[in-house]
Protein 1
Amino acid sequence: MKKKIGDQNVLYPTPVTVVAALVNGKVNFINVAHVGIVNAQAPHLISLGMNKAHHTNIGIRENGTFSVNVFSIDKMAEVDYVGLVSGSKTDKSAVFETFFGELKTAPIIRDCPLSMECRLHDTYETKTHDLFIGEITATYADESVLTGGKVDLAKVRPLLFDMSSRKYWSLGTPVGDCWGAGKNLIK
Amino acid sequence: MKKKIGDQNVLYPTPVTVVAALVNGKVNFINVAHVGIVNAQAPHLISLGMNKAHHTNIGIRENGTFSVNVFSIDKMAEVDYVGLVSGSKTDKSAVFETFFGELKTAPIIRDCPLSMECRLHDTYETKTHDLFIGEITATYADESVLTGGKVDLAKVRPLLFDMSSRKYWSLGTPVGDCWGAGKNLIK
């Protein structure tokens, strides 16, 4: 039996990312799990729903570039930490080592499985949040998470977020083929 | 060592949803895993990145309402099936039983753990995709997935999507506290 439970968002789990940007010339990090996928072909667009109060938003607007970094469960403490303190008061620039890619102003985290370097494509604004829509210009993968040149989520062991339990979760195992598991139902 | 792997989107896994809408008066379903979360407070906004070629888009535009239904791994075949055939050619209205809520025109799936009834808030268009931004007006949960009145992902056992492997994945276990796991790093 289904019951109404208000108007809560139950679209979880989502991957926990660390967004990196230069704010007034200094590298800053924040964790963001309110992410989204806009389309399914190049140029690939992804979205970040970020409260306007965040310090990182200033840098994304300023430079029009940022990176979105996917983390493994091993780094849960560091990933959680960059969401606990604001870059407006605390220097978080040394939490992760970074390098710069072709966009020049988007710091990219070195020690994480996957990073997407993004150019700010557009900002969709709500009263409280900036929905930053980024175009992925380059993707970087640690060789240790590739199998036959492809990203292997079993090796990435991504950190996932759930608002209801306020817990981080791990990923389970593959359970079937997309565009395949339902083939037998075609009449 | 990190290497460039093109410009691919690696923001996975994402929850697999079945989006339900009335198209020309008939219930239609499609699976959508290119979802997103826009903000973190009411009115709760979520996004669906849907190729403009899909039949369901017509109904979402027509009625300005739809539902987003979260499925457990048990129903993988049915969920996959509604993404394999188009409602323009195949009547999928009997795949899931539905009911209508307060919006009157958004069919809501009865036999799934979680459903969000949505009013179309806005449509952000790209050349190939409609990013439908929905305002959640009501959320429905099967009592079997609640623990102490809260959604329990361990009971939901959500079906997750990964583009790289083209596999559906299961969820693992909780690994730590959000806004907690990094507290020891605060100086």
Protein 2
Amino acid sequence: MENKGISNAVIKRLPRYHRYLGDLMAQGVERISSQELSARMNVTASQIRQDLNNFGGFGQQGYGYNVAYLYQEIAKILGLDRENSMIIIGCGNFGRALAKYKNFANRGFVTLAMFDVNPEKVGKQESDIPVHHIDELAAFLQNHDVKIAVLTIPREEAVKVAEVLVANGIKAIWNFAHVDLDVPADVVVENVHLSESLMQLSYRIADAAKCRK
Amino acid sequence: MENKGISNAVIKRLPRYHRYLGDLMAQGVERISSQELSARMNVTASQIRQDLNNFGGFGQQGYGYNVAYLYQEIAKILGLDRENSMIIIGCGNFGRALAKYKNFANRGFVTLAMFDVNPEKVGKQESDIPVHHIDELAAFLQNHDVKIAVLTIPREEAVKVAEVLVANGIKAIWNFAHVDLDVPADVVVENVHLSESLMQLSYRIADAAKCRK
């Protein structure tokens, strides 16, 4: 069963709903209308209703949304109700920063191991996570249930490592390497290209400067 | 003058054109047709022509694109032909990883200073970048021409610091804090919400698993 109807734009908005509902819960808000949520999130109420209707609605006419219930349902849609075991390939600055980020583990994204080629790093621990040699990657994948592989290595190596990952059953890659990975259709890739994000900001600066002229 | 016609989708694709053209140059390719570029980039040739026509085209019937020229023109559109001075607020794991990333400086994104509250970090250097106390932020902004402020601090502090940034003339924020910043219309914000990216990946895993059933 494929959710043909769920567009990328909707998927991109779901985590933001999750964040705002979490904030509302923390503030003790028990129910909210789509109008109130709309004002907080700066999107139209009809967009909110449309987005949520993709998954069954969750709202009640005249009542609005039950915040805790909607939060929980969106968490389920996002797959946050189960553990997503991860490995991080690359024990450089970004790999280590990701390993140290506690919020991932809090949401069920638990890093089982890191991999690197540097003999000064291999065999040690990074934020309590063991660092293995990249040559042990295939064996590790065969012996562990890994859901997500995070790539924080240079682009040339990323392409080769992605092949090892796919050959050993990995179906999800969080890719920080500055390259488009060519993977089979059943493997999902989420790219974080920081340089491209920075270039988009640079474009907007140049464009805004033109407008001020 | 506002480029009303340039959609976000086009802006998001520009850095990718820049990357592929840089790779082609590195491979010694001097000219390329939109068909060949299309096959490499996995987008349609008509999309490429449409995207580039937003900025004047750059191609010649029967010749295609001159790679070096197009690379340079896209760099200009992206504002990479000038220096974009940055400061990084937050000397934690991500802030330090960004400070160490040499590719930013290579593209003209030069970090002038970092800011933190931790007395163990303030007054020292991080990858040759001086770390100042956050209380010195306003004075620093008045005395330096800073184009981009990078926020790698917790969300509560990010909201307050963004106010200081805006009050002191910052027009561009690269925001890694997990919050939507409420800034005036002439301030551009580019968000990198890593948790949300990871949740999107998690959604796609759950969705793909449904399809395999």
Protein 3
Amino acid sequence: MNLPDGYRFAGIHCGIKPALPDLTLVVSDGPCVAAGVYTTNLVRAACIDWNRSITPAVDVRAIVVNSGNANACTGRQGARDNEAMADGVASELGLGPGAGRKVLVLSTGVIGRPMPMETVQRGIAAIGRSLASELAAFQAAATAILTTDHSRKTASAEFSVDGQTFRIAAMAKGAGMIGPAMATMLAVIVTDYPHSPSTADGAIREAVDQSFNRISVEGHMSTNDAAILLAPTGGTDATPGRAVFQERLNAVCLELARMIPTDGEGATHLIEIRVRGASSDQAADRIARTIGLSNLVKTAVAGADPNWGRIVSAAGFAGVPFEVGQVSLTLNGIHLFENGEPLPFDPGLTSRVIREKRETLIELSVGHGSGAAWHYTSDLTADYVRLNAEYTT
Amino acid sequence: MNLPDGYRFAGIHCGIKPALPDLTLVVSDGPCVAAGVYTTNLVRAACIDWNRSITPAVDVRAIVVNSGNANACTGRQGARDNEAMADGVASELGLGPGAGRKVLVLSTGVIGRPMPMETVQRGIAAIGRSLASELAAFQAAATAILTTDHSRKTASAEFSVDGQTFRIAAMAKGAGMIGPAMATMLAVIVTDYPHSPSTADGAIREAVDQSFNRISVEGHMSTNDAAILLAPTGGTDATPGRAVFQERLNAVCLELARMIPTDGEGATHLIEIRVRGASSDQAADRIARTIGLSNLVKTAVAGADPNWGRIVSAAGFAGVPFEVGQVSLTLNGIHLFENGEPLPFDPGLTSRVIREKRETLIELSVGHGSGAAWHYTSDLTADYVRLNAEYTT
């Protein structure tokens, strides 16, 4: 993994969490373009309002991320604390007076608790010393944004345009409170391919729509979701290689997005749902999401139970029309239901195939339309329940 | 519990399930009015199409219910089997040729398996001998409709109009695949208060809207939901006592509805969600449902975790507008969030109160509007996952 030029990274433990890394800083050497996509939850963290008021922008210099506290549902004090974090970073970086608005903020963790600002400010004062442009620093930064994740989530791409090499490097976090109809969890993407605010904004929106917006763990939309792209200034719609950049950005975001339900809380299977034959892509998306959000489908996969009626019946309440007589289903390639009729199948074999594979592929055809969509989700295990029954206590 | 006059009941074991009762018959002594509310799932059991084509009706004589097999996703053979069940009952009851359409059918159980028709027909031939008008027969009938339920669900009411006594007796089943935006699970309600098809239809719709449509276990809409009311003919809108009947019917359905998430698969808490201050009752209902369907809220209650941010953030993605600055939350009477600001609270005490009570009361005020709604749901436990990971295998 080669990092783009022009950025430094750091990830440290400052004390918001008892022991694990909890503070990340990403700094651009010069003013950079920043664009973001954010949660559409009405109940938003202070950082979301802050970032939304700034991006798309041309003179952003840094993103500070804390994990362990979401700074959401924290009222007016939460907004003040968020601004103090941005101001603190601007001051430490010597960006000059009033430069807080050159610093984006991301928070993730428990909702409704005041930010431990003394701890955070101490961390902000210290983290600058760890900034570096090397891979180890990027990895430390990608580690300190995690909460219930088991594994660090990074992805990268490299491409050449007219003999010049460009790079994209991205980090994400998320294992729970992952729901659709939103932006995403946290993702920070840096590139050395030049952008304007409008090209960056369009690029991140397209990439998120094709990736983070098509995953779920339990479908609960977070208060803190954000995906932010940083890029050098000076790009336009006409910059050579724009389409290649978009293609690579989409691929990087998709790679990260898949990692989230794969690492979903308690998950033992990644479930990939592919719907085709719908009247439109939107209709197919609603069906795929409804299947992906069904606890009955998710528990069946967890238990390797070939209870396929749950899949078909979930499609039936997605709120989009189709003819049951045109519905066909395969599960890991095994045909179970064809044109509305159940097929004879071997439940033992089907169960064994689910159990032995880390990924379960559900393919549903609902008619002869051209609408298609996909969705990734986790299975639902007793461990998910245990993890989430004891999160704050 | 006193039963209304004019009905006989039976519940037996015929062999669809290995050992438990699985066949119920409810017979009206004379032609009766029947009205029903049914699942809105596009993927419907054969019995739903059958009943929908008959009700509201004035000459229904019986309802046959089997548990253990949903006869859903069973294609054309499923429709033929359903009709054979109705014809078999009509024949056994001596209703004359072509009287199958005087018999309603309800099926519940596993989806996608062919009905074991030899077994079912043997049961239909035998069940008539068990028909009786006594309470024990009613209870046997209410037992044979159950699937994963732990307990029989019955409710009744008695009222007088102009010195004449009328009765309502009702049975329901349901513990899983319980979702909103639908009709309900299975419920059969009999009364000796007279109706016309249109009064019966209006009565059952109002009662379901106030009861079964406001509960969930995991939000997966069933293929087989149905609530059916049987009543003597001869009633009109002007029949004295109509309002009292409706009030009692609503109360009976609400009593049954509460039993379903209380007995929800694996459930250790009934969660009651009350939302007020919304712009409309519909808006309040969407918020209450969204909270009730959140796995994160449901696991927090299971673990007695006072992680109230999950409740407020669920409201935030319900898709209806409100001002976070006007949101207040209490949990079992403990104030946690007021006008957008978190309140200091004792997490240990709050947790203990959740753990010690079988019911958890969530009260959310989202503004100054007059819209209000309530929703009942189960908590989500590791046992729910275990039960549903191993349902068919």
